[in-house]
Specification:
Elements lengths: L19 H30 L1 H16 L56 E3 L9 E3 H18 L3 E5 L4 H15 L1 H7 L13 E6 L14 H9 L5 E3 L6 H4 L7 E4 L2 H10 L4 H4 L10
Helix pairs in contact: 4-5
Length: 291
């Protein structure tokens, strides 16, 4: 028999044969992956190249959105300071207290008139009820007429003048009579010496009730007329010149009938401040005795 010819047959591969289509798909997938990786790398490079600007811009934008920069409140332009309130003060130097022609003249035991025989130039008769025909300076006369009218209209009280202007020579007679009747010590508490009397200025008047009740007596202060005068005389520029509690300052005993014209402005200021004597108001020494 003829021996069989052995043919060498390649051994079969352990992997299944890969078709061309499969190989093509793998190639495409790998190519796609590579391309994607390249894109990611490119993007990462761009981001890493500008990190500060991007992040800073984002932060700024976010901050601007969440917490906007506060707008400054406009301040009003400064206005001028208000003018200080000026409280008017009484001018104590507006009139003389030395000139006998001044309605503020202060005459007492320490301050004689200068000249001692001074006589006012504008004396007029006062058209009011009276015991003796009164004379006063024009301004004082007008004021006392208005005061007597007000007493009658407001309170039904009838006032009268018991004495007004007295010249130097008349005051000599009055003082000498008081000394002769009561002695000089007493006279000096009730009647001014010539040249020291307010009656000589034409600004003083002794007032009583028209009926004559308590005329020139301390009891006049208790009458309706006396009480009305002490409460209202300031409105007309008159001052109760010799109060009961000021004898050591004025030098004269209580005279509720003796009123002195000083003008409405000064009388009002003294009333408002509660000062009752000219000596205290103008800061003058007390005058209990003659110098």
């Amino acid at each position: 028999m003829r021996a069989a010819k052995l043919e060498t047959v390649p051994a079969a591969s352990s992997r299944a044969p890969i078709s061309r289509a499969v190989r093509r798909r793998r190639t495409l997938v790998i190519a796609g992956a590579v391309a994607a990786l390249a894109v990611v790398s490119l993007v990462a490079g761009v981001v890493s190249a500008q990190p500060s600007a991007s992040v800073g811009q984002a932060t700024t934008t976010q901050t601007a959105t969440l917490a906007p920069e506060p707008t400054a409140t406009p301040r009003p332009s400064p206005s001028a300071s208000p003018e200080p309130v000026v409280v008017p003060t009484f001018d104590m130097a507006a009139r003389s207290i030395d000139d006998p022609a001044s309605i503020w003249v202060v005459s007492n035991k320490q301050r004689p008139l200068n000249p001692v025989d001074y006589e006012p130039a504008d004396l007029v008769e006062v058209p009011v009820a009276h015991t003796w025909s009164p004379l006063l300076r024009q301004e004082a006369s007008d004021a006392v007429v208005a005061m007597f009218d007000a007493a009658a209209t407001e309170a039904g009280l009838n006032l009268a003048s018991n004495s007004a202007y007295r010249s130097y020579s008349t005051q000599v007679e009055v003082y000498d009579q008081d000394v002769a009747a009561n002695g000089q010590a007493f006279a000096d508490t009730s009647t001014a010496r010539p040249g020291h009397s307010e009656h000589q200025t034409g600004l003083a008047i002794d007032i009583g009730a028209e009926s004559g009740s308590c005329s020139l007596g301390a009891c006049f202060g208790e009458t309706a007329e006396g009480q009305w005068l002490v409460a209202n005389a300031w409105r007309f520029g008159y001052l109760l010149r010799y109060p009961a509690d000021k004898t050591e300052i004025t030098g004269f005993s209580y005279e509720p009938w003796h009123f002195r014209y000083i003008g409405v402005d000064l009388a009002t200021e003294m009333h408002n401040t509660g000062v009752t004597t000219l000596e205290e108001f103008f800061g003058l020494p007390a005058a209990p005795d003659y110098s």
